[in-house]
Each structure stands twice: as structure tokens, then as C-alpha cells.
Amino acid sequence: MKKVYHRIEKIVGNVLTIRASDVTYRELAEVTSRRGVSLAQVIRLDGEFVSLQVFSGSRGIETDAQVRFLSHPMTIPFSDSLLGRIFTGGGQPRDKGPGLYENPIPIGGPSVNPAKRIIPRRMIRTGIPMIDVFNTLVESQKLPIFSVAGEPYNPLLARIALQAEVDVIVLGGIGLKYDDYLFFRDFLDENGALGRSVLFIHTASDPIVESLLVPDVSLAVAEQFAIKGKRVLTLLTDMTNFADAMKEIAITMEQIPSNRGYPGDLYSQLASRYEKAVDFEGAGSITILAVTTMPGDDVTHPVPDNTGYITEGQFYLRTGRIEPFGSLSRLKQLVNAKTREDHRTIMNSMIQLYASYRETLEKQAMGFRMSVWDTKLLKYGGRFEREMMDLTVNIQLEAALDLGWKILADCFDPAETGIPSKLLKKFWPEKAAV
Amino acid sequence: MSNTGTIVGVNGNMITVEFGGDVQQNEVGYAKTDSLELKAEIIRIRGRRADMQVFEDTTGLTVGNPVEFSGELLTVELGPGLLTQIFDGLQNPLPQLAEKCGFFLQRGMYLPALPRAKSWDFTPAAKPGDTVTGGDTLGTVPEGIFQHHIMVPFSVRSECRVEEVAPAGAYKVEQVIARLKDDRGQALEVTLMQRWPVKIPIKNYVERIKPVDPLVTKIRIIDTFFPVARGGTFCVPGPFGAGKTVLQQMTSRQAEVDVVIIAACGERAGEVVETLREFPEVMDPRTGRSLMERTIIICNTSSMPVAAREASVYTGVTLAEYYRQMGLHALLLADSTSRWAQALREMSGRLEEIPGEEAFPAYLESVIAAFYERAGLVRLKDGRTGSITVGGTVSPAGGNFEEPVTQATLKVVGAFHGLSRERSDARKFPAIHPLDSWTKYTSVVSDKDVAAAKRTLRAGTHVEQMMKVIGEEGTSIDDFVTYLKAKYLDDVYLQQDGFDAVDGATPADRQKYVFGIIVRILETALNFADKDAARKFFNQLTQKTKDWNRAASGTPEFQEIEKQIQAGLAEVTRS
């Protein structure tokens, strides 16, 4: 049993400092004050001074609060009984279920040896044409959804989670609105997916320090499932809140900010989370889908900017649709050659034509005369947006490809599409030729 | 008697250590707990306290833990067996580490970089009685496609007499192959391997000479418009998704050099995996052997410890210098130098130094300059030359080149390949901006032609911008043709289909030939009835030329298409 310390020297922000000995870096401690018991983590050792970050915040902590060190870093219990459960960022039950304590595993563990990684090779089907056809999601990919506040990114995330063919869903909510938390919970429950999900939820009203734990806890659990051979989909929403929490704490710790107040290690911090996405040789995989809201729709804001450098592409969610330009899945070419022979052609041709449609729209807006070709494009663009881009469309990849051919055939002559004649012969719908 | 100190503070990956004996700046030490030994480097000394950056996660360290100083700076092992290897930033071989520790990178595991058990076929070149000094060859061993020189340790400054050289035969890297005696009578044993501190350049050459020969990458926009010389430096800044890494991967495959060192520094692990899984399968057309045989990968990806990331670029350049000393041409590709600069920034922040722009340390520029200056073409003592070409990608925040890392890099490099968001969004590959980029080296084609092509590009861009305002109707036919010519040059020459075997890799002589013809087309005055006719002609010409690009040199197809291009051109040439 370790000594209990009673005298707190300093409280700044959520960090309190005491004099103590034999404390290791990153060790956990229990802080007991009149307000209750909270965990805290050692974040700095300076001679005999030990600085601790209190998970539930320092509000109401008196100078004679008790600090008891636990001799181990932050852990999370891991077992199959996690499935179907909801926890806070600190690992406490949020669903009135029993607390779990067996088999604690450390969080924020070491990174995967690059020599042990394999080239991703399996597609994840989502039933959303804008993803399946145009920017295929690949197992072990890390992909953010860039969007502005107010876009339906959480419903999109929930739908992907539900429809994706994975074994386990780990949802990490960071600074989630309480309503959004309820939405996720009820949505997964109603659709019978809660039984294969684990939720770590930090809501906007919870202590800020806990939000920092959510990605690590979620990914540590995901990693354990993956090692056991499960295909895990990890959803993190919203990583901008995570970055903002880091900023808040860095500033109170008097760290020198680098860009718009964010700490200098923002890139490394985000990367060490996103890089947990992996396909283990001979075991399961972790795929990460994260929401990154862009303040002011500005992709050069430090959070989306650094994220873009880390992740393997991004989905832009704008006006309720996944934008075909700017959205990118860097790994799609690893899988889309093996789906169906017309996949890449449909992907490229439809996007090129849609780009022409956008140009025509601009011309139309400026009052230029519409040619026959322009009229065709306008018809095509309308149908593409309604039948492909709309997020309510829910069809399998093959059906989506067939639909693509149908739209093309209804709007254009075969030669106008620029598709190689070999594929035209095989796939161009018959009736449209009449 | 080992020199030890005691930890008195821990802050992130920085520890403060109180020491008793003497230490030196940048000395390496090991922080010890009951179960761990973590490598660290002194980065500041104040009084009897040293601040050290730990190359690992510091969880579990405590005040009072001992630190053992090694008396050495951060060093790497140099010797046969470096090629084909995959190291982390501290030269730990990653595949061997995986064998030992499984999926994860365990803290505090350090393995020898060079295989100890492997034997090498040594052939002596020096004989007893010879006078030698640091960097002189004592013998050779075959390493893959090269004769690997076994050299007198670079740290030897004085003239030494060779006392004894081992006879030809098989030796392991730690075995002594020669005994020397220096001018003060000190005996010195030389093994197949030696150690060298990474942050100090190896300078055992006669002189640096001006790089002139182009380093052919087979990427047309680079070789023709923005060439890099062997022994030169270049940088590739660009926003995310602009194709920096793809371009570097292409360069690492195709560049006409002997040794390629890829320093994947703080970038995605997935991209390195592609390289290290694919390279063994790809054949190097120059040697007929696997590409991996000329490659070393230093891999310190974004989630690996930050301090080791800082070391990784130095590890890379030191290995390059080692091969340069053998008279070989090495290419170091660092992806991305911004992540390296960020590692400097993180450390500087922990040291609570006064920050410069965007919180980067004030010494950022000099550190970047010193790194790029390690490139160069040198003449060795025996008259041979060797070179290091350094190419670094830069990942500017927000894709804005007006940031400290890009600006500091631009000051010291010889070529700038700026990637543009617009070009990459338009799916133009490579997305190197043809008007913003520049080079100080000589092209593989004639300067006159390059200047002519650039004039067309500039004029075409000008017309294009005008057309946005006044519409196509308001543009004169001559201006319109200029615009089409610029677009044609862009479509068929500046852009390249990286997936096509022929188009993706254009050798220098083919570039000369094709570019000559394209420039003639640009310079020919053309006659069209109207804009639609002009557009139609150029659409066809573009299609034809693209087919031409895909036809292998010297085939009947190649000649046939060329004939068709010329014939089509003759029809519209203004008489």
C-alpha cells in the first residue's frame, strides 16, 4: 500500500502539484476530495514535485485532498463482456451496468512494427454508392469525414457502422452533444447492432480531461479485438473536439502554442491515434472512420490540415452529400480492380462527366447560351445527384454500377462518354440504344 | 568505470539528469529502470544538470532512476549488409525486431544493425607497409551488385602504416581484417564495420566539385524542365493529397543512381509498407536485380517516437555518405522534412526556448541548411567521384508555401518542385507547377527549347485567364491557338501516366527526341478556319501524342504514330 499524500502545493487548471517520492511518469493516482473520488495521471516529474492531471477537473478540490498513487498507468479492462456496453472516457459504466475490472490492458500502447503490416486488400461495403463506387473504403484504412457543423455526419457515421461488414464496432464520442449520444445508442440498439458494439462516450458536459482518453481507450480495445482476429471498425466523433481539448490543456500548462493556439505536437498526437489503423498479418484489422469538423469550412485550419496529412484520404460532407471532388480514398486502387471490370471506368467516367456538368452550371449561371451538349449534361447531373449522391440511396456496389450505366445510357450516346469500346459493348444497356 | 547520472525530472520525452562525471553535448545515455533501458541523447547542459531527449515513450521512469552515459554521440554502424535493410530512425532493423517482439515495437529493444553472424568474402587491396589514412580502402567484399570497400575508419586523421592485412577469405563484420600503426606508434585494429556519429558529416574526400551531370528520374517535367544534378538538392513541397509520396516512390524506383536511401520520416506507415513489400518484387532495369538490392529504408513513421524521427534523417544521410566514400552515387529521399522540423519544434518547446515563427526554433534555418549541405559531388583520393543527391518533401501547413520550413528549405536547395493543389485536383500527374517551380541545374534537353516551351506555357496561361473574363467569343484566334498549344504541351509532356510502363518512365534520350519535336510543333505557325477547327485539331493531336507516349521507342508503332503526327501538322501549317 502506497503512502497517501495530503498536501497539495499548487492547482492550475486541471493540474495539481504535490510533493511525493517514488512516483513514476504516467502513473495513475486517486484523488479524493469532498466532491468525490477521481482518477488523475502524472504528467510531469520535477525533483520532488509531481504534477497530476485530474480527470474530473480540479473544480472543488481542496488543498488537503487525498492523493493515493496506484503504481500503474491508465488501463482499461478488456473482455468480450465489453460488447453491448457504454462507458465514459475514463472507463466507468454509463449504462447502469456493472463496472468491469478484470484483465486490465494499458492504453496508448506502442505502435505496430511497420515490418508487420501488410498491404490492405479487402473492401468494406457500405451500401453508399458515393463510397463503394467512387471512394471505396478499405479494411485498415483511416479516413476522416471533413464537414462543417450542422452536416449530418453522425447519422452518416452510424449508417456506415450499421451496414459495414465488420465484426465489432467501437464508437468513441468526444465532446458529443447529449442528443447525439442518445441518437447513436438508440440507433444501434434499434437496429440490433448494439450487441457487437462498445461505446466510449464523452459528452460536451463531461470533464474535458476525459475527452483526451476516449481515442486511446477506444483504440486500445479495438486493438485487443483485432489481435483476437476480429475485423473492427472504430468510429471517432469528433476529433476536432479532441484537438481542442489538447489545445485547452496545453495552454493552461503554459506550453508555447504553434499554430492558432494548438500545441506543436498536434500532428504527432493525431498521428499516434490514427496510425493504430492496421491490418495484422494472421489476425484481424482496425479501420478508423473519424469526424473532423472544419471550423468555418476551412480545410487549411490546423486540425483538418494535419489530419489530411495523416489519413489515407478524406470524405467531404457538404450540403448533406459526399462531395465527389476533394473526397479521396487513397487505398481504393488496391481493391477496385478486383470488384468488377467496369468499376474503375464507371468511377472515372461518371466523375469526369459530373465535372463537366458543374462547369455547365457555372456557364448557365453566367447567362451563356446552353448547347445541346450542355442540356445533356444538365439532365445527367440532376440524375447523378438524385440517384447516386443522395445519402438515402442504399444499394450494393453491383447494383450501383448497373445504375451508373443506366443513367449514362439515358443521358448520352455511347461515344460521348469516352468509355473504351470493349466495355461499352459488354455493359451499355440495350434498350437505351433504341 | 562507467559514468552515471540520476534522473531528477521527467516531462514528456525529456528527462533532466544530474551527473557526476563529465559529459559531452549530444552524448547518448541509457535511462534504466528495473525492467527497461531507454536510449536518450543530451540536448542541453546547465550546471550539473543535463536535459536529455529520450528516443522512446517515458512512461514508468521515475526520479532517482540511474542514467548510464555511453561516452559516444549517437552513432550508426557502417559496413557490409546495410543494403536491402529496413531500419528505424536509430538503425534498429525492423524485421528482426518483429521476429523478436511480434506485432508491436517494444520499448528499449536495441538490436545490432548489421548481421553479426553473416560472413563476407574479403579480398585485400592494401598490403603491409602501405601508408593509409581515414577513408582509404583496405579491401573489398561483394555486397549484392557492388564491391563494398572496407575502409580505414573515417575518424583516423593521421597517417598509419599497415602492419598486417588478413588474407582473402570469409569474415564476419566484427572480425579484424587489418592492423595499423599510427604515427605515434598506437596500434589500431580494423574490422569490416565501423561506427560513425550521425550528426557529423563524413569528409574523407579531397574536394567537393560542382554537380553538373543530370540525375535522370525518367519523369519528364523534372528531367526536362526542373532537372536535378547528381550531387544536388531538391525539395518537393505540396499540400496533402498532391502526390508528394507517389512522386518520391517513382523517383526511388527510376532514378539513375547506385544506392537509394528512403528516409520515411514521420509519414504514414502504410506507404512505407507498399515500398517494402513491392520493392523486392520490382526489377531494376539497370542491373537486372531486385530494386531492394540497391535500397535502404529508414522508417520512422508518424506514430513512432518523435526524437527518433529527428535522428532518422541524419541516419539516412550518414549511410549515404558511407556509400559515397566508395565512389558510388547515392540518392537520399526524405519524406517529409516538415515532420522532422516539427520534431525539432516539439523538443524546443519542451526546452522552453524562445520560439521563432510558428513556434519553430530560431535555429531551424541553419539546421535545415546544414542537412542539405551534406549532399554533394566529391572527388575521392583515388580520383573517383561519388555523390549524394538529397530530395526532401515538405508538407506545409495548409498548403501555403509561405511557412518557415518551406522558406528555409528554398534558400538552400538547387531545385524546387512545387506541387499545386489545382493540378492535383484536376488529376494531373505529376502535379509539379510548371510556372512556379525552378531549378539551378542543367536540363537533359537544350536550354533554348526549354525557354521556348516555358514562353508558350506562360502565354497560354495568360490567355486562359483572360478567357475566363471575356469568354471564348472575345478571344482572337491566334491567342486561342496559343492557349491550345500550352494545353497540348501540358497534356502530352508535363503530365505522365505513372501506371503505364512506357509513359511512366521516359529515358533521357527519348525526352530529347520527343521534346525536340514537340517544341517544333509549338513554334510552328498554324492556320485554322475557326476555333472549333483548332480545338478539334489539337484534341486529335493530343490523343495521337498520348498514344505515341505509350509506344515503346524504336518500335514500328512509334515510328508510324510519329509520321501521322507530322502529316497532320503539315495540313494546318501556315504556308
Describe the 3D structure.
Chain A has 434 residues and is of the alpha/beta class. Chain A has 3 domains: 4-73, Thrombin, subunit H (Beta Barrel); 77-333, Rossmann fold (3-Layer(aba) Sandwich), CATH 3.40.50; 343-433, no CATH class. Helix content of chain A is 34%, strand content 26%. Chain A has 12 helices and 23 strands. Chain A has helices at residues 129-134, 153-163, 178-190, 208-227, 239-252, 266-274, 302-310, 343-365, 372-389, 397-411, 421-427, 430-433; strands spanning 4-5, 8-12, 15-19, 27-33, 36-46, 49-54, 66-73, 75-77, 85-87, 104-106, 123-124, 137-138, 142-147, 168-176, 197-203, 231-237, 257-259, 262-263, 278-279, 285-293, 313-318, 321-322, 328-329. In chain A, strands 9, 13, 14, 15, 16, 19, 20, 21, 22 and 23 form a 10-stranded mixed β-sheet that branches. In chain A, helix 2 (153-163) packs parallel to helix 3 and helix 4 packs across helix 5 (239-252). Chain A is elongated. The mean pLDDT of chain A is 91. Chain B is α+β, with helices and mostly antiparallel strands and 575 residues long. The relative contact order of chain B is 0.10. The model of chain B has no long low-confidence stretch (mean pLDDT 92). Chain B folds into 4 domains: 3-73, Thrombin, subunit H; 77-103 and 206-439, Rossmann fold (3-Layer(aba) Sandwich), CATH 3.40.50; 119-192, OB fold (Dihydrolipoamide Acetyltransferase, E2P), CATH 2.40.50; 447-572, Bovine Mitochondrial F1-ATPase, ATP Synthase Beta Chain, Chain D, domain3 (Orthogonal Bundle). In chain B, strands 8, 18, 19, 20, 21, 22, 23, 24, 25 and 26 form a 10-stranded mixed β-sheet that branches. In chain B, strands 1-2-5-4-3-6 form a 6-stranded antiparallel beta barrel. Chain B has a 4-stranded antiparallel β-sheet with strand order 12-11-9-14, with no helix packed on it. In chain B, strand 3 and strand 4 (37-46) form a beta hairpin. Chains A and B meet through strand 5, strand 17, helix 6 and helix 7 of A and strand 1, helix 1, helix 4 and helix 6 of B. Strand 5 (36-46) of chain A pairs antiparallel with strand 1 of chain B.
